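User: Sequence recovery, please. Input:
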């Protein structure tokens, strides 16, 4: 919670809204996507994900604020989709930095899910963060030269990371490694197939 209420409050409303602002409130009108609006007491206001992002970019501890939002109120996908819908709006450069930080933590969660799947399946011999030239393989079976990469949320948001991961993948393939790539949705929506794909790659490489 904030220690004190600000002296001035800025509210974003769709351009079609003509309601007068109450004392102490500054209204800024602009076009908003319908999906980012919700009606509250007869007034259209920003829905949760947009409100969270716009609040985060105004706070000195915006990253910590987003962490609490993601832990208690909404999944990362909703926040990320809202961020993408509103690219180019004021303050979105800071929103991009906050999204990347939150995505890193979401990627760590994906890594934990992958480790859990392998342990539950009794698959051993893997190493996390295995060095490969200037790169680190997300999860590797070095003896069999099988690499498993998780294309997490940060991979989608950070252009530099996207390019680095592509270069790493190409280098692994040139060096004769078997490369498997999975997304968050693979790990959470089709875990049985993920384990089967990894097991098949290991058997083929043995």
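Assistant: Recovered sequence (206 residues):
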């Amino acid at each position: 919670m904030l220690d004190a209420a600000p002296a001035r409050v800025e509210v974003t409303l769709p351009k079609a809204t003509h309601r007068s602002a109450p004392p102490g409130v500054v209204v800024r009108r602009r076009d908003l996507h319908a999906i980012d609006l919700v009606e509250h007491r007869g007034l259209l206001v920003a829905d949760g994900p947009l409100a969270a992002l716009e609040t985060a970019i105004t706070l000195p501890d915006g990253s910590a604020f987003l962490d609490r939002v993601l832990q208690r109120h909404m999944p990362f996908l909703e926040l990320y989709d809202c961020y993408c819908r509103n690219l180019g709006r004021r303050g979105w450069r800071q929103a991009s930095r906050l999204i990347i930080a939150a995505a890193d933590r979401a990627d760590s969660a994906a890594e934990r899910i992958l480790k859990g799947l392998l342990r539950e399946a009794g698959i051993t011999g893997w190493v996390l963060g295995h060095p490969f030239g200037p790169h680190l393989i997300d999860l590797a079976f070095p003896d069999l030269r099988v690499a498993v990469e998780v294309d997490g949320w940060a991979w989608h948001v950070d252009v530099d990371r996207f390019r680095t991961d592509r270069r790493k993948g190409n280098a692994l393939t040139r060096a004769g490694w078997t490369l498997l790539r999975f997304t968050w949705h693979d790990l959470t929506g089709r875990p049985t197939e993920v384990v089967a794909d990894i097991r098949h790659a290991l058997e083929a490489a043995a």
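The first helix runs from residue 48 to 56.
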